Amino acid sequence: MNIQLWRPAALDEAFSLLEQFAPDVCAASGSTLLQLQWDKGILPKTHLISLEAIEEMKGITADDTHVSIGALTTLNECRKNSLIKRALACLCDAVSAVAAPGIRSRATIGGNIASKIGDLIPLLLVLDAELIVYQKELVRLPLAEWISSEAYPHGIVTRVIIPRPEGDRVFFRKLGRRQAFTGAVAVTAGRLLKDSDIRLAAGHADIRPKRLIESEGKWMEPEWEAHELYETLIKELPFSADAFVSAAYRKKAAANVIMSELLIEGGG
Ligand SMILES: Cc1cc2nc3c(=O)[nH]c(=O)nc-3n(C[C@H](O)[C@H](O)[C@H](O)COP(=O)(O)OP(=O)(O)OC[C@H]3O[C@@H](n4cnc5c(N)ncnc54)[C@H](O)[C@@H]3O)c2cc1C
């Protein structure tokens, strides 16, 4: 099959191409997830719109309250950048658990998010991340909305805006069968805010990650037993089976990790 590669330098041009060639088209950043999909024969699109030349999608800035990361920032850049290290150490750690070093030098944070299944999404959900998405104009929306909505079919993720979690305790745990080159059994993330509010989220390679709202509600109740929170997690974790792991195994593994992180805080 002949693939036609386009390399627009502006967002409006990229968006017009995505609209013009739909549905036989897709955007490409580092193309590492696309490569996996091509290998499996999943994505034979004729038009590929490379976003790599779009300047607005590059660069990292920070102020007192937020960090803004261009969607084209590679995962290796995220890991090494001094602003991110200072303001979002949890993101540096999480990035190290994605793919393997060679892949991370091409893979972008925007591609991880835009795929709606990337391993970084649970962490970004608990951090209350927002996205700047281009769809005829720039719109700012919560990451959770991007994940669950079909309202942005050709939307281009241009930046991710992350509030600095100063003083909050944040955890991110990816459980896999091997250290690298492995799909996650489960990815969990949590954030215990200074005012004792909480965020929890989970996912794995084949599903859209989500916030665990019921479990968060259980944690916020004035009195609860550890087994009640555990059962709420098991009920709410959105996991499915694949050829290697049952849904029940994934749920147990993830619930155990979350409970161990929360009980460090002396809950229950
Ligand atoms: C060997 C291997 C192991 C991997 N392991 C992991 C892993 O452990 N965890 C994990 O999460 N991922 C893994 N991946 C997938 C991938 O490397 C990451 O998810 C990566 O961050 C995707 O970024 P990318 O720039 O390569 O995205 P691309 O492949 O370019 O794009 C991914 C998807 O997002 C769309 N897209 C890309 N950028 C944008 C944008 N800015 N706006 C809108 N749509 C966009 C594309 O159309 C495509 O559907 C692995 C890949 C390989 C090859």
TrEMBL record:
Gene3D superfamilies found in the cross-reference section: 3.30.465.10
Keyword Oxidoreductase: yes
InterPro entries according to UniProt: CO_DH_flav_C_dom_sf, Diverse_Substr_Oxidored, FAD-bd_PCMH, FAD-bd_PCMH-like_sf, FAD-bd_PCMH_sub2, Mopterin_DH_FAD-bd, Xanthine_dehydrogenase_csu
PROSITE patterns registered for this protein in UniProt: FAD_PCMH
UniProt keyword Oxidoreductase present: yes
FAD-binding PCMH-type domain boundaries: 1-167
EC number(s) reported in the record: 1.17.1.4
UniProtKB keywords: FAD, Flavoprotein, Oxidoreductase
Enzyme class: oxidoreductase
Protein's recorded name: Xanthine dehydrogenase subunit C
Organism: Bacillus mojavensis
Lineage: Bacteria, Bacillati, Bacillota, Bacilli, Bacillales
